[in-house]
Amino acid sequence: xxxxxxxxxxxxxxxxxxxxKVDSFLNxxxxxxxxxxxxxxxxxxxxxxxxxxxxxxEASGIGIACVTAQFFHCPVIFAKKxxxxxxxxxxxxxxxxxxxxxxxxDIIVAKEFLLPTDRVLLIDDFLANGSALQGLINLVxxxxxxxxxxxICVEKAFQxxxxxxRSMGVRVESLARVKSMSEENGITFx
Length: 190
Description:
Converts the preformed base xanthine, a product of nucleic acid breakdown, to xanthosine 5'-monophosphate (XMP), so it can be reused for RNA or DNA synthesis. The chain is an alpha/beta fold.
């Protein structure tokens, strides 16, 4: 998606060679007009898949998932990283290692919101090592729901996550695939 690639080139910041900061428009301060275009593109890519739920993980994917859900006219579920008093009863859980935070989380979704009859589209801001997506995939499979695919804003194609998830037979559509990046040479897209 040229619009997203151009925005990354303009406002993205590379830190330490493997961190791409897009917090000025994607995952801290959010450009809702850009999100709207991202949502339209995910709808174009997955619009014929009968999506009934969009699933993401807190926190950075929530805004993108919510805007995208408007085009699918379906609810958004976000996997929580901590069990709270608000989640009562049976839950699906999976473990996720956060590349950004260097921590392992148990992610949780209440069983009442993820049903075997659901057709689920995963949405996330980044795909690097694939741990977050693997955790979300496990939740969908544990629920007996149908996974239609994953919509990713930015994939670091030089890291193993995209290949790993695709090797699991999951359709992955990434709007911007970063081939390489460095503070010296900038960003190259696939």
